[in-house]
Amino acid sequence: MTLIDDTASISVSRHCRRGAVTASLDNLNFLEPLHANHSVCVESFVSGAHHKSMEVFVKVIGENLTTGERYLAATCFTTFVAVSSDAEEFTVPRVVPETEEEKMVCAGYKKRRAHRLHERDDYKEFAAELSLELPWADEK
């Protein structure tokens, strides 16, 4: 997961040319196992942008180094938020997909964003109900 976050953050930095923080890691799907003797390639691109937030699509490709067979091991969407060290107002650049794959992934951005916003509201309600008590503390 570190490789996913690190690779996604590079795509974000190249896209907006400013600092950004990971806001969420969404829909991490493990599709095929990565074996110890296989190579791993992680590719990512910004698949949507809105004001200061950016969605990044990440794919993890495995390769059997003996046979040369490549396979899709995992996919993931992450969300980053651009930050500024001063009070400067800014908006991250819009995304211009180039390849057919980018166009296909970017086409679903608005729907995924709406779904994430709805889930975020539901999750805030859920999180408000979670205990912050120390689990080993004596109850009185």
TrEMBL record:
<dbReference type="InterPro" id="IPR033120">
    <property type="entry name" value="HOTDOG_ACOT"/>
</dbReference>
<feature type="domain" description="HotDog ACOT-type">
    <location>
        <begin position="1"/>
        <end position="86"/>
    </location>
</feature>
<dbReference type="Pfam" id="PF03061">
    <property type="entry name" value="4HBT"/>
</dbReference>
<dbReference type="GO" id="GO:0052816">
    <property type="term" value="F:long-chain fatty acyl-CoA hydrolase activity"/>
</dbReference>
<keyword id="KW-0378">Hydrolase</keyword>
<dbReference type="InterPro" id="IPR040170">
    <property type="entry name" value="Cytosol_ACT"/>
</dbReference>
<dbReference type="InterPro" id="IPR006683">
    <property type="entry name" value="Thioestr_dom"/>
</dbReference>
<dbReference type="GO" id="GO:0009062">
    <property type="term" value="P:fatty acid catabolic process"/>
</dbReference>
<dbReference type="InterPro" id="IPR029069">
    <property type="entry name" value="HotDog_dom_sf"/>
</dbReference>
<dbReference type="GO" id="GO:0006637">
    <property type="term" value="P:acyl-CoA metabolic process"/>
</dbReference>
<dbReference type="GO" id="GO:0005829">
    <property type="term" value="C:cytosol"/>
</dbReference>
<protein>
    <submittedName>
        <fullName>Acyl-CoA thioesterase</fullName>
    </submittedName>
</protein>
<comment type="similarity">
    <text>Belongs to the acyl coenzyme A hydrolase family.</text>
</comment>
